[in-house]
Amino acid sequence: MNNNKNRLSIAVALGLLGSVASSNTMAAGFQLAEYSATGLGRAYAGEAAIADGADAQWRNVAMLTYLEGTQISVGGIYVNPNIDVEGQSSMSPTSTKSEDFAHDAFIPNLYVSHRVNQQLAIGFAVGTNYGMETDLGTDFTGTNFGNEASVITKEINVNMAYQINQQFSVGGGVRYVIAEGSFGATTPTQTEGKLPVPVGATLKYMEGTDEAWGWQVGTAWQINDANRIGFSYKSEVALNLTGHAKGLAFNPMNPTAHYSGSMELALPATAELATYHQLNDKVAVHASFNWTDWSSFEKLVADVNNSPMVNGKDTIKEENWEDNYRLAVGATYALDQKVTLRTGIAYDTSAVSEENRTATIPETDRLWLSMGAGYAWSDNLTLDAGFTYIFAKDAKMHEKDPKSAPFGGTFEGETTGNVWLVGVQANYRF
After folding, report:
1. What does the pLDDT look like over 163-173, one tens digit per residue?
2. How many CA atoms lie within 13 A of 349 on its CB side?
3. Which of 76, 109, 276, 404 has the lowest tally of Cβ within 10 angstroms?
4. pLDDT tens digits, residue range 201-213?
């Protein structure tokens, strides 16, 4: 929880510019899936049942019992989204377009595991589950619904796992989430003379940070030497966000004045069921089914203090999201004692139905195609790389809510694009 009042609700940023988040992140909503380059090469298929290295604890803490000695995994993934949005504003006679509005990003990670004894293992992890950075530009006529935003999150896990017997392992851990972000919305430049406010004026600008705690549990069932099932669950993380806001929407006479505010936002719970099957000495197949409780994200309600326009509870955005599902299948092939090849395919469903999709949240289905490889440099050091290309389904959008954008009219359009990712990982065993 925050102890000062200079922090702003990143929830407002996420809600008002969720489109950018969903375009810049690789899972549903504003969620990130990229936790390791090793898993990237198989489209994250079977993650809760696979233990390649210390990074396995991020998806299932019970997999720590499958790691020997002390291990370190470190790496990163470069994300290149190519997302465009094009449409028509009711305030402009011509169509408008913003190209490549989601910024590139590099997502680092660090994991450490240690086998205490035959039954007990512990782990430490640093990664991220959410992130975005975007700029729709000043020429876009839908800037009244948001022109720029950024969200950066970091998560620290401390985990422990216990092997009950040869078949069953369980684990749990605590999660500490740190978040910071900003959001801006301006009057469109094409509305000169049509609105009682200057063009390019700041309607809303917000920035700030927050911290919160969560937890996770996992279990693994080793059916026999060749078959394994894993299950993991991450809790909802409740953020109590406070900070400041400014703009015409809060004070038309003094848009630069700052006002304190707060908002509660629950990052949704997630679960994964995964299987791993070793078909022979060279080939293994694996699969995952993931669920995210996005239906808990119904609306954003802010509590802004002492603003002439808002003093108390104010509905920022009606969202009405629905639960998201992801199905992934993959395969691993041991080419020889040094080289391991991986591949996978996944389908990620949208967290927003067609009737609730808006200009600020063009959430859509995604198809993943992945490939990767691992190289055993020595008995202790393994190097991995992964590549993924994501097809984002074209999605219609409609924005007509005057509460989220009081000036600038309505907007209807479509988002199109694709994303490619490349990652590298180093795993060292002591």
Report:
1. 999 999 999 99
2. 17
3. 76
4. 888 887 778 999 9
The token duo for 226 is 């060749």
State the fold for domain 10-429: Porin (2.40.160)
State the Cα–Cα distance between residues 363 and 18, nearest whole angstrom: 8
Distance CA 370, CA 39 (A): 9
Cα dist. 7→180, 240, 246, 325 in Å?
A: 9, 10, 13, 33
| CA 262/CA 152 separation, integer angstroms | 19
pLDDT along the chain (430 residues), means of 10: 38 34 53 88 96 95 97 94 83 78 86 97 92 78 78 89 97 92 76 66 82 96 97 91 83 86 82 97 97 84 77 70 93 96 96 73 86 96 96 84 61 86 96
The CA-based dihedral angle spanning residues 402, 132, 95, 318, taken in that order and rounded to the nearest 10 degrees: -20
User: 277 and 227 in contact (C-beta within 8 Å)?
Assistant: yes
pTM over 0.85? The answer is yes
Sign, CA torsion 193/197/198/200:
negative
Neighbour tally for 68: CB within 10 Å: 12
Domain residue extents for the chain: 10-429
